[in-house]
């Protein structure tokens, strides 16, 4: 640890010697950067901020269906890129024409002072067995380098984007010129067509005016004739209306008289209806009484009829039994007759067959006698 402290103390002494030398050089007569360079740097920062905003907007405009704003954004990026290049060129030219040695020496002196302070703090911390300031300074330096590298990378990306945008811009310009030429041709064709249409329209308008005038005169005459016909029809309708009015009044008078007569008839019919209703009611009561009497007689007749029906049924059954018995008796008699005839036939047949047998026996006896 003491070795490291000695090294840092030696470096601190050497930096002190360099500080004395830089102070003597700083007294030399040099020209600092002017206000023009400061303005250029401020404009460059503004253009860089605008360039970043345009690049962000370009990513959003790519997804839109309308490509007009996207093309405008590309043109704006190209303009900002050209301005950045021009500003960088002017700044480099001014720096070459007006080098600022004192500014560089002041920067070196500032860095030297910071380094001396850092080494002093580091020596104190090493004596306390730590080196936090040195580690923090190293981290800050790394961050600065990373920031510088990111800036360089962004510059490269911007250059590549500029080249691609220039290429796209040239393509867009070529396409735009072609589209403009095509549109000019279409416009010329449309102009020719419009002239032809105007010529045809003028002649057609003259013809239409003449035709319209003739049609108007014809329609006017037809309307006058129709008007006269309508006037005559109106007069006829007026006469017809008067006749209808008189007929209506007569019909109303006739219907009024008819109504009065019908009302009188209705009253008469109502009286007659009441009388007839009362008479029919009396007749209905008489018929009801007669019906009751007839029903009693009908029930007696029904009872007598049922008794007679029973007697007739019994007589029918008796006759049926007698007829059945007679039929059976006749069948038996017929059967007996058939049996008797059959038996007589059998007896006759036996008798007929028995006589020839006896004759044959006698002949045999006679033959036997002859042989002897």
From TrEMBL:
Residues 138-164, 352-372 are annotated as: Disordered. InterPro entries: IQCG. One of its GO terms (cellular component) is cytoplasm. GO terms for biological process: cilium organization. Residues 153-164 have a biased composition (Basic and acidic residues). The keyword Isomerase does not apply. The keyword Cytoplasm applies. It is found in: Cell projection; Cytoplasm, Cytoskeleton. It comes from the Eukaryota. PANTHER family: DYNEIN REGULATORY COMPLEX PROTEIN 9. This is Dynein regulatory complex protein 9.
């Amino acid at each position: 640890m003491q070795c490291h402290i000695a090294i840092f103390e030696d470096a601190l002494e050497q930096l002190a010697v360099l500080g004395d030398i830089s102070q003597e050089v700083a007294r030399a007569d040099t020209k600092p950067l002017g206000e023009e360079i400061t303005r250029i740097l401020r404009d460059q920062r503004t253009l860089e901020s605008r360039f970043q905003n345009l690049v962000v907007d370009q990513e959003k405009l790519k997804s839109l269906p309308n490509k007009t704003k996207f093309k405008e954004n590309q043109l704006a990026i190209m303009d900002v890129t050209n301005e950045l290049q021009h500003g960088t060129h002017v700044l480099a030219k001014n720096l070459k024409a007006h080098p600022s040695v004192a500014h560089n020496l002041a920067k070196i002196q500032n860095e030297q002072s910071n380094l001396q302070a850092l080494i002093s703090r580091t020596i104190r911390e090493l004596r306390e067995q730590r080196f936090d300031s040195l580690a923090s300074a190293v981290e800050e330096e790394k961050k600065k380098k990373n920031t510088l590298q990111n800036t360089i990378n962004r510059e490269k990306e911007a250059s590549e984007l500029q080249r691609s945008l220039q290429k796209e811009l040239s393509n867009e310009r070529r396409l735009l010129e072609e589209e403009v030429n095509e549109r000019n041709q279409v416009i010329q064709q449309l102009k020719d067509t419009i002239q032809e249409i105007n010529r045809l329209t003028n002649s057609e308008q003259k013809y239409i005016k003449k035709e319209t005038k003739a049609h108007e005169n014809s329609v006017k005459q037809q309307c006058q004739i129709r008007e006269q016909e309508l006037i005559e029809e109106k007069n006829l309708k007026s006469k017809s209306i008067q006749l209808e009015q008189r007929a209506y009044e007569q019909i109303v008078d006739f219907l009024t008289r008819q109504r009065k007569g019908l009302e009188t008839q209705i009253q008469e019919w109502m009286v007659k209806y009441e009388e007839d209703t009362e008479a029919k009611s009396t007749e209905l009561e008489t018929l009801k009484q007669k019906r009751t009497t007839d029903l009693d007689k009908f029930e007696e007749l029904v009872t007598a009829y049922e008794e007679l029906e029973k007697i007739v049924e019994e007589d029918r059954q008796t006759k049926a039994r007698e007829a059945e018995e007679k039929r059976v008796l006749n069948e038996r008699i017929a059967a007996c007759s058939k049996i008797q005839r059959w038996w007589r036939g059998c007896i006759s047949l036996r008798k007929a067959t028995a006589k020839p047998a006896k004759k044959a026996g006698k002949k045999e006896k006679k033959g036997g006698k002859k042989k002897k």
